[in-house]
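Open question from group meeting: does this chain pack into something compact, or does most of it stay loose? Before anyone orders reagents, we agreed to write out a predicted structure and look at it together. Recording both the input and the output here so the notebook holds the full record.
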Amino acid sequence: MAEPRVRLVVFDMAGTTVRDDDAVNRCLRAALAGAGVMVTADAVNAVMGLPKPEAIRRLLESDDAASAASVTSVHADFAERMRRFYASDPSVSAVDGAREVFDALRAAAVKVALDTGFDRVIADTVLARLGWSIGDAIDASITSDQVARGRPHPDMILALMQQTGVADPHAVAKVGDTPADLRSGAAAGCGWNVGVTSGTHARAALEPYPHTHLVDDIRELPALFGL
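C-alpha cells returned:
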C-alpha cells in the first residue's frame, strides 16, 4: 500500500517560521533575572519548545536560590516582555521563505497550521504583526495554554488534526527547531517529523531526537513532501 501523501503540516513558530533574534531566550533570562535567578543561554535552550510555564518551572528548580520565585510571576513578566517585543521590535520578521512555503503547501491542498509553546495572547501578537491570518496564510493555530499538555506531548498536534479534518497521523508533518518539537511529532505518530537546523538548535543538537528528516531551510519542504 502506498504511503499517504501529506495533508497537514504543523509548523512551530519562534525559530522555525518566525525570526526574532533569539528574543525568547533573552526575555526568559531577563524575567528570571528579575526574580534573582541567573541562568545561562544554554540552560534556556535546553527547555526551549516546552510550554513556557513548564520551562520556567524547570529553570527555577535548577537554581538553589529560587525557592521564593513564583512560576506565575516570572511567566507574567516574561509574557509581557514578549508581547512588547513582538508588537514593536524591528527585528521581528518571517523566516525567509516561510510565507512562500505556506502558499505552496496550501495551493497543493495541504493544510498549514502553527503550534507554539507561547500562550494565545503572545501568539496572536505575532500573527497580527506578520499578517498571518486564518484562511489566508494559514489554516489553523494552537497554543500550549489551549490544551491539557504542551510539548513534548502530542496534544497540540492532535487538536490541530481534529480542527483541520485530518484523521491519519501518517499524513501529518511536524516541523520545528527544538527537541520538544521532534518529541511531540513522534508522540503523535506523524509520518514526517522534520527538524529545522537554522533555529535554536543546530543539526548536532537535534540528531539524537526522533526525526525522519533534518533540513537547513524550510524552503526545502515542498520538494521533501513531493510537491
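Observations to bring back to the group:
Strands lie at 8-12, 18-19, 93-94, 111-116, 140-143, 172-176, 192-196, 213-215.
The radius of gyration is 17 Å.
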